[in-house]
Amino acid sequence: MAILEVKNVNYTYHTRYHTVEALKEVSGTFIRGKLYALVGKSGSGKSTLLSLMAGLMLPESGEVLFEGTPTSRMDLDKYRLYHAAVIYQSFRLFPLLTVSENITYPMELRGFRGEKARALAAELVEKVNLPAGALDRFPDMLSGGEQQRVGIARAMSMNSGLLLADEPTGNLDTENGDRLVSILLDLAHNDDYCVIVATHDLELAARADKVLRISDGMLGDG
Ligand SMILES: Nc1ncnc2c1ncn2[C@@H]1O[C@H](COP(=O)(O)OP(=O)(O)OP(=O)(O)O)[C@@H](O)[C@H]1O
Ligand SMILES: [Mg+2]
Q1: Could you tell me if the CB of 44 is within 6 A of ligand 1?
Q2: Which end of the chain has fewer CB atoms at under 10 Å, N or C?
Q3: pLDDT tens per residue across all 222 residues of the chain
């Protein structure tokens, strides 16, 4: 079964000054085991679609279904905490928490704490190719590429099988970007994750299993 399905989704932003039809009748099916790249010009609707997938907002019409259940029928706070793992271009790590605490904090919100949580954090840090010594460091003692990998480790601690990423290589140099894509591919192919990435990075898109292009709020094959 598809882990995520988008069905005839429309989304319009209404501001005081204008109305923007950001997504128009967007449909797509996303399965585990694949890395999807969402590409398209600036303003085409990529981040809007990811926000709907992540449960940050609901479609105006149409549905986003996670394992068959529409997000409109879920408690969105729970959906975000347990199912929709997100990483951002700007990393968004907690600056005053160590790497280990950054990863265990959301685990604690899910009721998973103590030595077990720390052991899982250590495992995940290894999985994203960070040295074990990184666990006790603060984010600003790491490079951008390393911080982004902490973001992935934190997202993976949810073990939900779905990872959404908005421009994850946007702040990285080529080498760290390549390494990040390899980790995302590994997650899809070896851990059976569904990874969906909005990106301007053509090298990332070239390595994806499937490229979807958004143009003026409409989705088509890349
Ligand atoms: N909060 C908002 N209020 C009003 N309009 C918005 C808002 N967020 C996005 N938009 C508009 O919706 C459209 C789609 O924006 P979106 O951020 O989804 O594009 P994008 O493909 O992610 O662009 P980029 O590549 O620059 O990140 C754009 O026209 C944008 O100006
Ligand atoms: Mg965007």
Answers
A1: yes
A2: N
A3: 899 999 999 999 999 999 999 999 999 999 999 999 999 999 999 999 999 999 999 999 999 999 999 999 999 999 999 999 999 888 899 999 999 999 999 999 999 999 999 999 999 999 999 998 999 999 999 999 999 999 999 999 988 899 999 999 988 889 989 999 999 999 999 999 999 999 999 999 999 999 999 999 999 877
Answer yes or no: is the C-beta of 45 below 6 A from any ligand 1 atom.
yes
206-212's contacts with Cβ under 8 Å and 24+ in sequence apart are: 207/35, 207/181, 208/35, 208/36, 208/37, 209/34, 209/35, 209/36, 210/34, 210/35, 210/36, 210/37, 211/36, 211/37, 211/39, 212/28, 212/36, 212/37, 212/38, 212/39
CA angle 155, 124, 210 (to 5 degrees): 55
- As a whole number of angstroms, the distance between CA 81 and CA 59 comes to 19
Is residue 32 exposed (0-12), middle (13-18) or buried (19+ Cβ within 10 Å)?
Answer: middle
Q: Kindly list the protein residues that place their beta carbon closer than 5 angstroms to ligand 2, a single-atom ion.
A: 46-47
3-class DSSP assignment, residue 213: strand
Q: Is 47 in the pocket of ligand 1 (CB under 6 A)?
A: yes
The CA-based dihedral angle spanning residues 136, 171, 54, 120, taken in that order and rounded to the nearest 10 degrees: -20
Report which residue type is found at 123.
E
Name the token pair of 113.
């704490």
In this structure, the dihedral spanned by the alpha carbons of residues 148, 152, 153 and 154, taken in order and rounded to 10 degrees, is: 100
Per DSSP, the three-state class of 165 is: strand
